[in-house]
Amino acid sequence: MSAVKNGARVVLTSRSYIYNEARPLLKPYAYPLLHEQHGTVDVADLTRAERQQILYNRLTAGDQPQEVRARMKPHLEAAADAAPFRPEAARRLGLQAFTSSLSLTRQGITDFMVESPQLLRDVYDQLDVNAHAALALIYATRRDRALPGLPSPFVFDAGDRDIVERAGSTPGGVGRAVVTLSGTFLRLNTSVDGQAYWTFHHPTLREGFASWLTTQPHLLPVVLMGMSDQALLSRTDCLEPSSRQRQGTLLRIPAPLYHATAQRLAAQRQPPGRFESWQQRHDREQSVLAYLGKNSSQGFLRAYACADPQLLNMLLQFGSPACYDPRPPVLARLHQAGLLPEQARQQAISHMMKLAVSAPDASWIEDEDWQKKAWHILLTDEDRDRLFAHVRGELFARRDELLDDWLAGATGDDDDPVEDALFWYRRAFEEREDDEAAGEFDYTSDLYHEGRQDLPPSAADENWDRSTATTVNVQTAGEEDAATRRSLFDDLDW
User: Hey, what CATH class is 115-226 in?
Assistant: First the structure.
């Protein structure tokens, strides 16, 4: 009102939710122009040229060095096409203070424009407790509810009230905040049966809120409430805070949530439900194993080992080839963390010793990538010597019997695991200067190769006709135009 009294012809606010919150205080009934001449610029509806111009202006006004802008330039049209497009993300892209760890690739720059987690955290920090409570409620909408959002009008249960109280708000404050946040952070949807419900306006806003929640100790329990099992396994990690976050990871679970997260993951390994197939259960278990092997700190492994008493029994049942089974890497991680009992380690070695001959499986042999292999961690030098002696002795004593067993399960496929294993064994014994054993494996490999010459290919392999495979270079009209037309960003690094 002061602006109007002082002759201002235009009043701007930077965010619609700021205007929505201030609107009751502006008395629009007394100043009809506030309603009649009110306009909103929706950045989601900007044309491609307008988005490119905003991005160009932000970069030229920023402080990025010329060489950085030159490396960004080939990827900026894709950055302008990012959905949702945020002018504030474009501004931050132009400033060194926000891009010190940015990967100057197409993926890195577009991810910065779309996700920009620090930008969203800063925005959420500026909201009041009522807005925090409303967003937390909608984020934590129970997964067993029929609706994919929070029903409107609200019906608060005990869990909802706990979230509201944790945020320092009240049910009335939440109701007012939802109206304020509507259109910017939230949107009202209607189900097929006519039930209205609130959701985040865009998935990236939900993901950014999840990241912000991890910085709020009083709201930490809410983090896992609003995350599906699939999102937990594919978009989070439980690594050390100082380790680099992998691309595609939504958030890093803080240590206070390790126990609850471990309980959630352990539940994924429960026997399949009545209407769940074996394959679905297998896929869930494989996802959990991959998480433990790649996305877990020693602290989280300790929490998970407590939550899943049957973990070791399952890990010791790894198959062949062991280098493709996710269980040995988890055993190695547990051994590094001091969580693998010696008895279990010896059981793993005994199982590998059997597979080394019966399969045969040479996954335990060190090669040029031995630093990455689980068996380099699990085996001592003495263990490795025992394995070599065992494989050598079995081959010399049972070659014909083993050949019959291997050929019984062989096919005529080009890629054969037995031939691969025999090759690695021959090379390994050569490096150990055991020429007699190396020659024996070479001879055995020739016999095996001859034995499978007349075998038909497997069903999966016989459908592949290499002679019919061609490489087609398909270029769309849009790509042809992109190669010849001039880009707005061409002179950005001049």
Answer: mainly alpha
Q: What is the pLDDT of residues 417-462, one digit of tens each?
A: 999 999 999 999 999 999 999 999 999 999 999 998 877 776 544 4
Residue boundaries of the structural domains of the chain: 2-40, 44-114, 115-226, 227-309, 343-451
pLDDT in tens, 46-101: 899 999 999 999 999 888 999 999 999 999 999 999 887 888 788 889 888 678 77
* 3-state helix/strand/coil string of the chain: CHHHHCCCCCCCCCCHHHHHHHHHHHCCCCCCHHHHCCCCCCHHHCCHHHHHHHHHHHHHHCCCCHHHHHHHHHHHHHHHCCCCCCHHHHHHHCCHHHCCCCCCCHHHHHHHHHCCHHHHHHHHHCCCHHHHHHHHHHHCCCCCCCCCCEEECCCCCHHHHHHHHHHCCCHHHHHHHHHHHECCCEEEEECCCCCEEEEECCHHHHHHHHHHHCCCHHHHHHHHHCCCHHHHHHHEEECCCCCCCCCCCCEECCHHHHHHHHHHHHHCCCCCCCCCCHHHHHHHHHHHHHHHHHCECHHHHHHHHHHCCCHHHHHCCCCCCHHHCCHHHHHHHHHHCCCCCHHHHHHHHHHHHHHHHHCCCCCCCCCCCHHHCHHHHHCCHHHHHHHHHHHHHHHHHHHHHHHHHHHHCCCCCCCCHHHHHHHHHHHHHHHCCCHHHHHHHHHHHHHHHHHCCCCCCCHHHHCCCHHHCCCCCCCCHHHHHHHHCCCCCCCCCC
pTM of the model as a whole: 0.69
